[in-house]
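wait is this the right file?? whatever heres the structure
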């Protein structure tokens, strides 16, 4: 049995929150606010293929994590680049992406730009898009959505 030093508090581990099917507190908060405002949405149900898969027919050697030598990937299928936004209107009139902290090495900025390009190319009237980081921004996005859908 471990002895605690006098006067120190036991260390509390990070509390696990019950977020249901959501991956973050911000996503849950966004879903709750959308529902409270009567805005119908789909959560992570729509996947967009931004770049199709293809075969690279030139010589293609790739580094590997476990072996020291390169792996020959010539003629193998290169997987597609896909993007699944957090919240999408059922009629694709708007998209909300919630973003907390994003590390600098993260691929989100590139994927987001490809997604915007996809929307411009494939929609006659591209949907409204929002990236939100807090409750105030979520509320502002909902106001814009509701105003846009009424007008």
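ok assuming it is, sequence goes like this
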């Amino acid at each position: 049995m471990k002895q605690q030093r006098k006067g120190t508090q036991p260390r509390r581990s990070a509390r696990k929150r019950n977020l249901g099917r959501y991956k973050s507190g911000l996503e849950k908060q966004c879903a709750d606010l959308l529902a409270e405002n009567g805005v119908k949405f789909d959560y992570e149900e729509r996947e967009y293929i931004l770049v199709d898969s293809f075969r690279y027919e030139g010589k293609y050697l790739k580094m590997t994590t476990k072996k020291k030598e390169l792996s020959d990937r010539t003629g193998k299928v290169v997987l597609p680049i896909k993007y699944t936004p957090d919240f999408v209107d059922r009629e694709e009139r708007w998209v909300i992406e919630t973003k907390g902290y994003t590390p600098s090495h993260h691929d989100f900025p590139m994927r987001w730009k490809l997604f915007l390009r996809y929307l411009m190319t494939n929609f006659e009237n591209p949907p409204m898009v929002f990236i939100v980081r807090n409750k105030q921004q979520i509320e502002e996005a909902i106001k814009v959505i509701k105003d846009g859908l009424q007008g």
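Residues 135-150 form the longest helix (16 residues). so i think its the right one actually
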